[in-house]
Design a protein that fits this description.
By secondary structure, this protein is mainly alpha-helical. Helices cover about 65% and strands about 5% of the residues. The chain contains 4 helices and 2 strands.
Length: about 140
Amino acid sequence: MDRKELLEAVGSANRLYQLLNDEFEALKQQNLDLFERIQKEKVEIIHRLSTFSPKKDNQNFSDNQIAHPADAEWDELMELMKACKELHLRNEILINRKLDATKGALQALHLEEPTSSVEVYDRLGKISRGGKKSGYEEV
């Protein structure tokens, strides 16, 4: 990886870090439109970062153009990527908690309570009353 690519990678990693923080805020506020917009740019940046790799041979570059793992920029990139991984895991935990809460709410709506007047969608997308009906109620 030459120095220019390394600086581009650091810039991309900084942007990814910012997007992951924005994603967390969008999730906390349940702003799904913003969350979806973030995903597109996030995927592009991750793809771009995946194309960066250290050069195994330096036949086209002089030594001062090649980025070495001992460079400060390389250390910065590695630290940023580590921080991005931690932010991604934090966001994943929040998403999983929200999914669990939603699943719990849906289960509560489907409790077998004959007096329930809550209407929910069944697996076929049809509206059904909360709770299961006995055979004679279905007829």
